[in-house]
Every structure is written in C-alpha cells, then in structure tokens.
Amino acid sequence: MIKIGQASRDERGKYSGGMAGDQDKKEVAIRGWYNRPWNKVLRPKNPAIAGRIAAAMEDACRNENIGYDQYERTTLYDICKANGWNIKAVNKPCETDCSALVAVCANVAGVRVSGSIYTGNEAAALLKTGEFELLDAPKYLMTDEYLRRGDILLYEFHHTAIVLENGLRAESEVQKKPSFKLGWNKNHNGQWWYADSPNSCIAGRWSLINGRWYVFDMKGYMIVGWFKQGSEWYYLNVDGAMLSGQWIAIDGKSYYLQESGLMARNSYIKSKDKNMYYWVDSDGEYKKEFDTTDPDLSKYQLVK
Questions:
Q1: Percent of the chain whose pLDDT exceeds 90
Q2: Cα–chain-centroid distance for residue 110?
Q3: Where is this region: Disordered (predicted)?
C-alpha cells in the first residue's frame, strides 16, 4: 500500500477548536492509502511539479507547527505566502485543513492557487491552472495501483489528500519522456521557454544564454519586465534579456540599471559625456531637480 499525506482532524478528533500546531503528530500526517471513497484524481501534467507538490506535503507532515482547524484554515497559507512558499521555514503554530494544505503545496510547486479553495471547487480551481489533468476511471479511484507521486486525491465536498509514492502499476502507464527541441521554444500562448536537454527545460532560476542573462519562472517560462529578487530589482527586456549599464524609461519615469543589472537606488550616476551627476531616489526614480556637478558622495554612492 502506498503512502499519502493529508490534513485530517485536530488533536481531539474534531474539525475545529483545538490548539494551534500538530498536538499529536496526526493532525497533518503521512498514512497508507485508503478508499475514502475518492471520486476524482488531479494529476500534474509536469512530473517536476508533481514531485514538488509531494515534497511540499512531506515537509508539512514533518512540521509540528502545522495543525488542523477548519476555522483557522488559511493561517498556514498566509504564512507561506509571506515567506516565499517555504513550508520548512514555518516556525510558529498555525493551522490548515485538507484543501487549504493542497493549495499551499500547489503554490510551493509554482502553481498559483487561492487559499480559499475547498473540496467543492478544488477540482475546478486546479484544472483552471492548466497544470493538471482529471482522472476519474475506477482504476484510479478504487485502488492505489495506478497512482503516481504528486497525484491529488479528491472526494468532493468531503476530503482531499496527496499521493507520496508510485503505485505498483504506475510505471507501466508512464509515457515516454518528451523530446524537446534544444534551445528556445514558444508555446501556444506566446510564452518562451528554453530546453537545456531533450528532456528538461530551465525553470526557477537565472541562466546565461549566448552571453545574456535571462530569468525563468518555476514553470519554466521566460520572465519579461521588472523582476524582483530579494530586495533588489532588475529589468528584463521584451526579448527577456537582462538590461544593464543604461538608462531606461518606463511609464514616463527614468531609471538606471547598473552594469550588474541591479536598479540603482539612492545613488548618483555620472554622465558619460559631461561633468554632470544624476540622482535616483529610494524607488530608483531619476530626479532632475537634483542634477549637480558636485555630488555629496559622503552620503550617497556613485554607481556604474
């Protein structure tokens, strides 16, 4: 029997009113598959997303700060949204329920789903993302043999859980790995992605391609426009390449991108053709009224 992860009840066996956090290590826990009965399975189309969903559930089940309470069901979601979807970093008692936890796991995997979903609309919400397929044949619902790690089990209006292991016959159904065209590819929505091997694409990181820097989101799509990493801002051109060492005009405002690509803030930038220094404020916006030939470099830095 394969393992699944779920949020099921509080420490008293009830659905609300208990103490925050997992009081008996069973509120959010891993257990063997069982026939709830389930009436739908939502399977991630991307195996990488499936793996991240399952790993997120495992992290939640190991974190004793995460308990069960339907009345406080979004507290885990709110904490994870604020910390960049890092379940391991949750260090204070909070609560979730079965569907709110599925929403958290999906977001950890890079699939944006509202924390307000419940078992009655969960299937519709997940399918709307375009990242899942619906399986409702009896072999997926009545037995664990054909389930795969990352599958989401659903008994509408009652319960939901996440599969953590492949069933005995799951591998027989695994399709041949896709063969991507190496390099740049574009989907039907006009979104660009980059295959770095016949079976994988760059996702969730920066990449230097042909001497230019690009950023790809968790789904593998190239990002354009403003991009924030930590507290710093970068700007990615319409072709996705990071701009650097230049001024840009956005919505009638001017900003300076340093040679590293970082947007300059609270800094002076020296003119390249005359003895003039330009100042940008804490939001990176150029302020013409502070043009000067004598910058206060004891207070503000000079950037390149």
A1: 86
A2: 3
A3: 1-21
Asked whether the predicted pLDDT for residue 296 surpasses 90, the reply is: no
**C-alpha to C-alpha distance for 297 and 32, rounded to whole angstroms:** 65
- Output the CA–CA distances (angstroms, integers) from residue 258 to 23, 180, 228, 302, 304, in the order listed: 51, 35, 15, 10, 5
Domain span holding position 97: 3-163
CATH number, residue 207: 2.10.270.10
Amino acid identity of residue 140, one-letter, is Y
Q: Is residue 171 part of a domain?
A: no
Same domain, 198 and 120: no
- Does residue 188 have a pLDDT over 90? no
What total number of domains does the chain contain? 2
- Band (pLDDT 50/70/90 cuts) for residue 161 is very high
The single residue listed with the structure tokens 């406080």 is: 72
Distances (CA, A) of 300 to 120, 256, 264, 271, 274: 56, 15, 11, 16, 20
Q: Is the pLDDT of residue 174 over 60?
A: no
Averaged pLDDT score across all residues of the chain: 93
In a domain? residue 175: no
Q: First CA to last CA across the chain, in angstroms?
A: 61
**What's this model's pTM, rounded to 2 decimal places?**
0.60
Q: Do 91 and 240 sit in the same domain of this protein? A: no
Predicted confidence (pLDDT) per residue in 71-110, tens digit: 999 999 999 999 999 999 999 999 999 999 999 999 999 9
pLDDT at 172 over 70: no
